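Exercise 3.2. Students should predict the tertiary structure of the chain below and write it as C-alpha coordinates, then compare their answer with the key that follows.

Predict this chain's 3D structure.
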Amino acid sequence: MEKKANYVARVVGRLDNRYYLIEVHNRLYVIDYFNPRDVRNYLWGFFPKHFSSYNVYDVTDISDRYKIKSNPKWLSVFKSINASSFISLVVTLWLLFFPPTFAHNDKIPQLWLPILVVFVVGLLLIITFLNLGLDKSIDLGKLDRKIISPTTVIKSEKTYLPEKLAKFISFVLGLSACFLLGILTSNYFTLFFFTFVVGYAFILYPYFIETTLNKYKFQIKNIQEHRRHKMLLPLGSIVYLADGNQKIVIIGRGMIVNQEGEDVVFDYTGSVFPDGLNPEEIYYFNEEDIDEIIFEGYRNDEEERYVKLYLQWLEENKEKVVKGRTK
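Answer key:
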Protein backbone atom coordinates (compact mmCIF):
# COMPACT_ATOMS: atom_id res chain seq x y z
CA MET A 1 0.00 0.00 0.00
CA GLU A 2 1.32 3.40 -0.96
CA LYS A 3 2.19 5.56 2.00
CA LYS A 4 0.51 8.95 1.91
CA ALA A 5 2.71 11.97 2.49
CA ASN A 6 2.14 14.40 5.35
CA TYR A 7 2.14 18.09 4.50
CA VAL A 8 2.21 21.36 6.37
CA ALA A 9 -0.82 23.59 5.77
CA ARG A 10 -0.70 27.39 5.60
CA VAL A 11 -3.60 29.84 5.83
CA VAL A 12 -3.74 32.14 2.81
CA GLY A 13 -6.88 34.01 3.80
CA ARG A 14 -10.51 33.57 4.66
CA LEU A 15 -13.64 33.64 2.55
CA ASP A 16 -16.00 34.13 5.49
CA ASN A 17 -16.41 32.88 9.06
CA ARG A 18 -16.73 29.29 7.82
CA TYR A 19 -14.46 28.83 4.82
CA TYR A 20 -10.74 29.53 4.53
CA LEU A 21 -8.27 29.34 1.69
CA ILE A 22 -5.25 27.23 2.61
CA GLU A 23 -2.13 26.10 0.81
CA VAL A 24 -1.03 22.47 1.07
CA HIS A 25 1.90 21.13 -0.96
CA ASN A 26 1.78 24.03 -3.45
CA ARG A 27 -1.93 23.66 -4.12
CA LEU A 28 -4.79 25.86 -2.97
CA TYR A 29 -7.83 24.46 -1.19
CA VAL A 30 -10.97 25.91 0.31
CA ILE A 31 -11.42 24.26 3.70
CA ASP A 32 -14.81 23.95 5.38
CA TYR A 33 -13.29 24.65 8.77
CA PHE A 34 -15.78 26.15 11.21
CA ASN A 35 -19.53 26.06 10.61
CA PRO A 36 -21.00 28.53 13.14
CA ARG A 37 -24.38 26.80 12.85
CA ASP A 38 -22.97 23.53 14.17
CA VAL A 39 -23.15 23.37 17.96
CA ARG A 40 -20.36 20.78 18.03
CA ASN A 41 -17.86 23.51 17.20
CA TYR A 42 -18.59 25.20 20.53
CA LEU A 43 -18.80 22.03 22.62
CA TRP A 44 -15.51 20.71 21.26
CA GLY A 45 -14.71 18.77 24.42
CA PHE A 46 -17.77 16.56 23.87
CA PHE A 47 -17.25 15.95 20.13
CA PRO A 48 -13.51 15.32 19.51
CA LYS A 49 -14.23 13.17 16.43
CA HIS A 50 -15.81 16.18 14.75
CA PHE A 51 -12.33 17.70 14.41
CA SER A 52 -10.60 14.58 13.11
CA SER A 53 -11.09 15.63 9.47
CA TYR A 54 -12.29 18.53 7.33
CA ASN A 55 -13.80 18.85 3.88
CA VAL A 56 -11.54 20.60 1.35
CA TYR A 57 -12.03 21.63 -2.28
CA ASP A 58 -9.15 22.06 -4.73
CA VAL A 59 -9.41 25.57 -6.24
CA THR A 60 -5.84 25.93 -7.46
CA ASP A 61 -6.92 26.80 -10.99
CA ILE A 62 -9.98 28.85 -10.07
CA SER A 63 -8.93 30.62 -6.86
CA ASP A 64 -9.53 34.01 -8.51
CA ARG A 65 -13.27 33.28 -8.43
CA TYR A 66 -13.30 33.66 -4.66
CA LYS A 67 -12.93 36.91 -2.79
CA ILE A 68 -10.12 36.37 -0.30
CA LYS A 69 -10.21 38.39 2.88
CA SER A 70 -7.15 38.86 5.03
CA ASN A 71 -7.29 37.65 8.60
CA PRO A 72 -8.13 40.34 11.19
CA LYS A 73 -4.98 41.94 12.61
CA TRP A 74 -5.99 41.08 16.16
CA LEU A 75 -6.08 37.41 15.13
CA SER A 76 -2.38 37.45 14.24
CA VAL A 77 -1.49 36.95 17.90
CA PHE A 78 -2.98 33.44 17.68
CA LYS A 79 -0.57 32.49 14.89
CA SER A 80 1.85 31.72 17.67
CA ILE A 81 0.52 29.65 20.54
CA ASN A 82 3.57 30.65 22.57
CA ALA A 83 2.85 34.37 22.07
CA SER A 84 -0.80 34.12 23.09
CA SER A 85 0.09 31.91 26.06
CA PHE A 86 2.72 34.40 27.22
CA ILE A 87 0.33 37.35 27.02
CA SER A 88 -2.36 35.40 28.86
CA LEU A 89 0.11 34.38 31.57
CA VAL A 90 1.26 37.97 32.16
CA VAL A 91 -2.31 39.29 32.45
CA THR A 92 -3.32 36.35 34.67
CA LEU A 93 -0.46 36.91 37.12
CA TRP A 94 -1.17 40.64 37.22
CA LEU A 95 -4.86 40.19 38.00
CA LEU A 96 -4.32 37.38 40.52
CA PHE A 97 -1.55 39.04 42.54
CA PHE A 98 -2.05 42.75 41.85
CA PRO A 99 -5.75 43.24 41.11
CA PRO A 100 -6.94 46.88 40.97
CA THR A 101 -8.34 47.58 44.42
CA PHE A 102 -10.87 50.15 43.19
CA ALA A 103 -12.62 47.39 41.20
CA HIS A 104 -13.15 45.13 44.25
CA ASN A 105 -16.72 44.21 45.21
CA ASP A 106 -17.58 41.54 47.80
CA LYS A 107 -21.07 41.11 46.35
CA ILE A 108 -19.89 39.70 43.00
CA PRO A 109 -20.03 36.00 44.12
CA GLN A 110 -23.66 36.49 45.16
CA LEU A 111 -24.51 37.60 41.63
CA TRP A 112 -23.30 34.38 39.97
CA LEU A 113 -26.68 33.58 38.40
CA PRO A 114 -27.16 36.97 36.64
CA ILE A 115 -23.52 36.78 35.53
CA LEU A 116 -24.14 33.32 34.06
CA VAL A 117 -27.20 34.63 32.22
CA VAL A 118 -25.19 37.55 30.81
CA PHE A 119 -22.44 35.13 29.77
CA VAL A 120 -24.89 32.91 27.87
CA VAL A 121 -26.58 35.90 26.21
CA GLY A 122 -23.17 37.23 25.19
CA LEU A 123 -22.24 33.84 23.72
CA LEU A 124 -25.47 33.76 21.71
CA LEU A 125 -24.71 37.24 20.36
CA ILE A 126 -21.22 36.09 19.31
CA ILE A 127 -22.70 33.05 17.55
CA THR A 128 -25.23 35.31 15.82
CA PHE A 129 -22.41 37.60 14.69
CA LEU A 130 -20.47 34.63 13.30
CA ASN A 131 -23.54 33.46 11.37
CA LEU A 132 -24.10 36.94 9.95
CA GLY A 133 -20.56 36.78 8.61
CA LEU A 134 -21.36 33.86 6.27
CA ASP A 135 -21.10 34.55 2.55
CA LYS A 136 -24.13 32.99 0.85
CA SER A 137 -22.59 33.44 -2.59
CA ILE A 138 -19.94 30.79 -1.93
CA ASP A 139 -20.90 27.69 -3.91
CA LEU A 140 -18.66 24.64 -3.65
CA GLY A 141 -21.25 22.06 -4.64
CA LYS A 142 -19.82 21.38 -8.11
CA LEU A 143 -16.23 20.98 -6.92
CA ASP A 144 -14.61 17.66 -6.05
CA ARG A 145 -14.74 17.21 -2.28
CA LYS A 146 -11.75 15.70 -0.52
CA ILE A 147 -10.83 15.06 3.09
CA ILE A 148 -7.93 16.62 4.96
CA SER A 149 -6.95 14.94 8.21
CA PRO A 150 -4.42 15.97 10.84
CA THR A 151 -1.92 13.15 11.24
CA THR A 152 1.56 13.98 12.49
CA VAL A 153 1.80 16.24 15.54
CA ILE A 154 4.53 18.78 14.84
CA LYS A 155 5.04 19.54 18.51
CA SER A 156 3.82 16.77 20.78
CA GLU A 157 2.23 17.48 24.12
CA LYS A 158 2.74 14.83 26.78
CA THR A 159 -0.51 13.50 28.17
CA TYR A 160 -1.32 10.68 30.54
CA LEU A 161 -4.94 10.24 29.42
CA PRO A 162 -6.59 9.07 26.19
CA GLU A 163 -7.03 12.03 23.85
CA LYS A 164 -10.85 11.99 23.93
CA LEU A 165 -10.97 11.87 27.73
CA ALA A 166 -8.27 14.53 28.02
CA LYS A 167 -10.21 16.93 25.78
CA PHE A 168 -13.44 16.31 27.67
CA ILE A 169 -11.82 16.92 31.05
CA SER A 170 -9.93 19.99 29.85
CA PHE A 171 -13.12 21.47 28.40
CA VAL A 172 -15.25 20.94 31.51
CA LEU A 173 -12.58 21.90 34.03
CA GLY A 174 -11.22 24.77 31.94
CA LEU A 175 -14.60 26.41 31.40
CA SER A 176 -15.56 25.90 35.04
CA ALA A 177 -12.26 27.44 36.16
CA CYS A 178 -12.82 30.49 33.96
CA PHE A 179 -16.24 31.09 35.45
CA LEU A 180 -15.33 30.42 39.09
CA LEU A 181 -12.04 32.29 39.02
CA GLY A 182 -13.69 35.37 37.60
CA ILE A 183 -16.45 35.37 40.21
CA LEU A 184 -14.70 34.24 43.39
CA THR A 185 -11.96 36.88 43.14
CA SER A 186 -14.64 39.53 43.73
CA ASN A 187 -13.10 41.95 41.27
CA TYR A 188 -14.66 43.48 38.15
CA PHE A 189 -11.39 43.30 36.21
CA THR A 190 -10.81 39.61 36.96
CA LEU A 191 -14.50 38.92 36.30
CA PHE A 192 -14.29 40.52 32.87
CA PHE A 193 -10.99 38.88 31.95
CA PHE A 194 -11.39 35.33 33.27
CA THR A 195 -15.14 34.75 32.92
CA PHE A 196 -15.83 36.62 29.70
CA VAL A 197 -12.62 37.12 27.71
CA VAL A 198 -10.92 33.81 28.57
CA GLY A 199 -14.26 31.96 28.80
CA TYR A 200 -15.37 32.98 25.31
CA ALA A 201 -11.91 32.36 23.86
CA PHE A 202 -11.95 28.90 25.45
CA ILE A 203 -15.31 28.00 23.87
CA LEU A 204 -14.29 29.47 20.51
CA TYR A 205 -10.88 27.78 20.51
CA PRO A 206 -11.63 25.76 17.32
CA TYR A 207 -12.44 29.01 15.48
CA PHE A 208 -8.79 30.05 15.54
CA ILE A 209 -7.60 28.06 12.55
CA GLU A 210 -3.96 28.99 13.06
CA THR A 211 -3.77 26.98 16.29
CA THR A 212 -4.77 23.81 14.43
CA LEU A 213 -2.69 24.30 11.31
CA ASN A 214 0.43 25.15 13.29
CA LYS A 215 0.15 22.00 15.39
CA TYR A 216 -0.23 19.24 12.78
CA LYS A 217 0.85 17.93 9.45
CA PHE A 218 -1.96 16.73 7.20
CA GLN A 219 -2.97 14.13 4.66
CA ILE A 220 -5.39 14.82 1.82
CA LYS A 221 -7.49 11.94 0.50
CA ASN A 222 -10.51 11.58 -1.70
CA ILE A 223 -13.74 10.34 -0.15
CA GLN A 224 -13.21 6.75 -1.28
CA GLU A 225 -9.71 6.60 0.22
CA HIS A 226 -10.92 8.15 3.45
CA ARG A 227 -13.57 5.48 4.00
CA ARG A 228 -12.16 2.53 2.10
CA HIS A 229 -11.83 0.53 5.33
CA LYS A 230 -15.51 1.07 6.08
CA MET A 231 -16.61 -0.43 2.74
CA LEU A 232 -20.33 -0.21 3.54
CA LEU A 233 -21.92 0.73 6.81
CA PRO A 234 -24.26 -1.85 8.35
CA LEU A 235 -27.92 -1.34 9.17
CA GLY A 236 -28.50 0.67 12.30
CA SER A 237 -25.50 2.91 11.76
CA ILE A 238 -26.01 6.57 12.63
CA VAL A 239 -24.40 9.34 10.58
CA TYR A 240 -24.39 13.06 9.89
CA LEU A 241 -24.76 14.03 6.25
CA ALA A 242 -22.72 16.83 4.71
CA ASP A 243 -24.17 20.22 5.78
CA GLY A 244 -26.75 18.37 7.89
CA ASN A 245 -27.49 18.87 11.58
CA GLN A 246 -29.77 15.86 12.15
CA LYS A 247 -28.62 12.35 12.92
CA ILE A 248 -29.66 9.84 10.24
CA VAL A 249 -30.05 6.12 10.98
CA ILE A 250 -29.38 3.74 8.08
CA ILE A 251 -32.36 1.47 7.41
CA GLY A 252 -31.47 0.11 3.96
CA ARG A 253 -28.70 -0.30 1.37
CA GLY A 254 -28.60 -0.50 -2.42
CA MET A 255 -32.05 0.95 -2.96
CA ILE A 256 -33.13 1.50 -6.58
CA VAL A 257 -35.40 4.53 -6.98
CA ASN A 258 -36.71 6.59 -9.88
CA GLN A 259 -35.07 10.00 -10.08
CA GLU A 260 -36.13 12.36 -12.83
CA GLY A 261 -37.45 9.48 -14.95
CA GLU A 262 -34.35 7.32 -14.54
CA ASP A 263 -33.73 4.32 -12.29
CA VAL A 264 -30.76 5.07 -10.03
CA VAL A 265 -29.05 3.37 -7.11
CA PHE A 266 -28.31 4.89 -3.73
CA ASP A 267 -25.85 3.31 -1.31
CA TYR A 268 -28.05 4.03 1.68
CA THR A 269 -31.61 4.66 2.77
CA GLY A 270 -32.08 6.48 6.05
CA SER A 271 -34.50 8.17 8.38
CA VAL A 272 -34.20 10.74 11.13
CA PHE A 273 -32.88 9.43 14.44
CA PRO A 274 -34.48 8.72 16.90
CA ASP A 275 -37.86 9.03 15.13
CA GLY A 276 -37.31 5.98 12.94
CA LEU A 277 -39.17 5.14 9.74
CA ASN A 278 -41.43 7.91 8.47
CA PRO A 279 -42.76 7.45 4.89
CA GLU A 280 -42.89 11.22 4.51
CA GLU A 281 -39.25 11.67 5.46
CA ILE A 282 -36.99 9.13 3.77
CA TYR A 283 -33.40 10.01 2.90
CA TYR A 284 -31.49 8.48 0.01
CA PHE A 285 -27.75 9.14 -0.04
CA ASN A 286 -24.36 7.75 -1.05
CA GLU A 287 -21.09 7.07 0.71
CA GLU A 288 -19.61 10.41 -0.33
CA ASP A 289 -22.55 12.29 1.23
CA ILE A 290 -21.64 11.12 4.74
CA ASP A 291 -19.87 13.78 6.78
CA GLU A 292 -19.39 11.92 10.07
CA ILE A 293 -20.08 8.44 11.41
CA ILE A 294 -21.59 8.59 14.90
CA PHE A 295 -22.28 4.88 15.43
CA GLU A 296 -21.69 1.70 13.42
CA GLY A 297 -24.36 -0.99 13.40
CA TYR A 298 -23.98 -4.71 14.06
CA ARG A 299 -21.65 -6.77 11.87
CA ASN A 300 -21.46 -10.53 11.50
CA ASP A 301 -20.61 -13.08 8.79
CA GLU A 302 -23.90 -12.50 6.96
CA GLU A 303 -23.28 -8.76 6.94
CA GLU A 304 -19.77 -9.20 5.55
CA ARG A 305 -21.09 -11.50 2.81
CA TYR A 306 -23.82 -9.01 1.87
CA VAL A 307 -21.26 -6.21 1.59
CA LYS A 308 -18.98 -8.39 -0.54
CA LEU A 309 -21.81 -9.34 -2.93
CA TYR A 310 -23.13 -5.78 -3.15
CA LEU A 311 -19.73 -4.28 -3.97
CA GLN A 312 -19.10 -7.10 -6.44
CA TRP A 313 -22.42 -6.33 -8.14
CA LEU A 314 -21.54 -2.64 -8.34
CA GLU A 315 -18.18 -3.43 -9.90
CA GLU A 316 -19.63 -5.87 -12.44
CA ASN A 317 -22.37 -3.45 -13.46
CA LYS A 318 -20.49 -0.15 -13.17
CA GLU A 319 -21.20 0.62 -16.83
CA LYS A 320 -24.94 0.16 -16.31
CA VAL A 321 -25.52 1.30 -12.75
CA VAL A 322 -26.29 4.98 -12.36
CA LYS A 323 -25.68 6.42 -8.91
CA GLY A 324 -28.39 8.72 -7.57
CA ARG A 325 -27.71 12.38 -6.92
CA THR A 326 -28.41 13.74 -3.47
CA LYS A 327 -30.44 16.94 -3.61
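Discussion points: The two ends are 35 Å apart (CA to CA). Residues 16 and 134 are 5 Å apart (CA to CA).
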